Amino acid sequence: MSSILKLLLTLLLVFQSIHSFSQNKVAIIGGGMAGVSGAQFISEFDPKAQIILFEKEAGLGGNAQTVVVKNKEGKLVKVDIGPQYFIEGPWNDYIAFWEKTLGPNPYESETVDASLLIQRKKEPKPVLVSPLGMKLRGEKLGKLLKLKRFNKEAYEMYKHPEKWRGITVETWVNQLKFEESYKKEIIYPFLAASLGTTVSEIKKTSAVDIVKLFAFRKPKASNQFKVMTDGMATLIQRIGEKMDPTQITIKCSAPVIRVVQSKEKWLVTYSSNGVEQTELVDFVIFATHADQTAKIIKSEPNLAEVSKSLKHITYFEVKIALHSDSSFVNTEKPSFLNIITTDSNELVSSTMNLSMISDRLNGIYKSWASTDAIEQLKRSGKLLHVTSFWHPLITTDFVTQLGILHREVDQFPSLYLSGGWSEGLETQNSAIISGKHAAEKYKAFLSKVKK
Ligand SMILES: Cc1cc2nc3c(=O)[nH]c(=O)nc-3n(C[C@H](O)[C@H](O)[C@H](O)COP(=O)(O)OP(=O)(O)OC[C@H]3O[C@@H](n4cnc5c(N)ncnc54)[C@H](O)[C@@H]3O)c2cc1C
């Protein structure tokens, strides 16, 4: 063979290997923060990968849903009915993601004082009310100092989680040195409202993971949260619009029905306008909730163990209502979060007074509310919008199974299960971290393919 021919053959082989590297097809199932960030991170790492992002709903966002409602003055305003707040520190990956993808000052934001009130429904005075803007308004100092001591205990656990792994909230609270009445009246309702669930459910959750929700920072006299003026979902959709359509195909209203192995690849079956379609892909990422992932993989026998582990991840329903009924809050002692309980300290509702974010949200309240409360709002004509969400209940079993699940998935080089829940505690920030982990798995897969 002539040396020129040899050179041409070598060049052809090099070209083919580059070509195969660049032609990888990646399916991402789920267009929430985890799926969208996963698509973004993979496209940055491998600009030639062909990514298909499947979303069952008509638009991107997932739990992040920005809705338009009328304020007290009758003006239309945007409100996040699902995830809404973030702060620097615990949400740094989230903040960095927007700056990287949308440029400097990617959003306008408003801040709110994270003030708290706990009150029994039939009693005129609150059991606990925290200062507003660092100002005491006749609050009982003794109760505030106790709340600070409770926060300190939580912060200690947050900083040194090792010895608390596998411990439920109930076991942790039992050994805290507070009177039983304080635990029932304040600690449990506060913890339940943090997750948006009932007192009995919160007792079963993993203490270490739940304290993360409010112990991210050293207890301070005042904490402020940030809220995006345009809404979290609006921004996720802006990312989708900016994505290069020659590299990332976004398929909305395209629920994935099943995923099965096909030799070295994955066959993804989805529905489009009621018609089943398929895509054969090299790498697949699930950015869906655990129960939805279990349904999609149930016909793949090789994933039977993964499916079994996914079933341990239980969800509870969270109904969130936007309304204009001021009886859900204490108007004399304004606080951002208003937790209303029964005589026996069970949660009735937990309401954010959105007027305290800005005047534009004047007269709008966002409540975690029981079905009865929602019916009552409907009858009074004060209901503006209601949505059902499904939230993972982070029990100690959930945490153990998550570890097992990650080890099982590790055995499949071209598969990753992402989603906020897959990092333990679910936030928009953890969803981004899961998107990064999906991209890392893809990088490891590519390095194997290249060999
Ligand atoms: C009421 C509420 C309030 C919250 N508040 C906050 C907050 O203030 N701050 C914060 O950081 N976090 C908050 N969270 C948590 C936050 O919403 C989640 O962590 C985050 O949305 C998880 O993102 P994800 O992409 O993992 O999942 P999701 O946002 O749930 O996205 C999953 C996507 O998968 C899609 N999907 C499902 N099945 C299929 C299928 N078969 N085919 C195709 N697509 C499918 C779904 O339609 C959805 O779009 C809150 C959550 C709730 C419920």
The CATH class of the largest domain, by name, is Alpha Beta
Kindly provide the radius of gyration, computed on alpha-carbon positions and rounded to a whole number of angstroms.
24 Å
CATH architecture verdict of the largest domain: Alpha-Beta Complex
Oligomer: single chain
Categorize the overall geometry: globular
What helical percentage do the residues reach?
A: 25-40%
| Helix and strand composition category | alpha/beta
What binds here, in terms of ligands, is: flavin-adenine dinucleotide
Q: Largest sheet, if any? A: 7 strands, mixed
Instruction: For the record, give the distance between the C-alpha atoms at the N and C termini, rounded to a whole number.
Output: 27 Å
Could you say what the CATH topology of the largest domain is called? Polyamine Oxidase, Chain A, domain 2
**Poorly predicted segments:** 11-21
Mean pLDDT metric: 92
Number of helices: 14
